[in-house]
Amino acid sequence: MPLFWYTKSTMDKLNPDYIRFEHFSPIHLAVTAFFVAIIVAACVYYHKLDEKGRQKFLYVMAALLLIDELVKHAASLATGQWEWEFIPLHLCSINIFVCVWHSIKRDDLSAEILYALCVPGALLALLMPTWTNLPFWNVMSLHSNSIHVLLEMYPLLLLSGGFRPNAKRLPKVFLILLCECVPIFFINKLLGTNFFFLNGTAGNPVLKLLAEIFGKDLYFLGMPFLLVVVWAVMYLPWHLIEKKKQNAKA
Fold it and tell me: What is the pTM of this model?
């Protein structure tokens, strides 16, 4: 079977020493800069569209996300490499369907979920990818890069279109996240998967740090604390902007 069709698991078995690049190496930074340029260009374009054009753009984004996810399953099934890990139960995979939902309903709660969870989740995946054991020209590598770029792009498009995050919605977002984590924890135990990275750090430097602090078996207990820090960074600027507007009106 050509290398183009290898999954991460197949590559681990047949060529475990291969690595495309180290995290934050010049190549990784160049690739990330390229992705950032694409996202910025899309946001500038979206900002200039009227409401009808924006709706069509979001429909296209939702369709691309679904097609991208289907390519993963089709390629792995056709080559006999499909595994339980491919079920769309990772945080980013679930957000694919949140994007689809939002493209139809355009509600604030789904937009908030995408900002609060999809932005940091997809960003972490692009900054610290777990698929660096695959070459660039590989179907799973192309999928992993494109799906996370699209997931990062979607909520940023909403920001460029006028959506503003509201920290008052965060309790609902956290409750939804918790409702996802509880069953997924047991699904991981049943299937031997690692959805939401609740069953292993997968070599992620951030999760490794949590493992050093909380222990390798309880590292996931540090995730809520990490999330609080991330949300503080993400929401404080919007709070200050809103406060400044209120002071200007007073």
Answer: 0.94
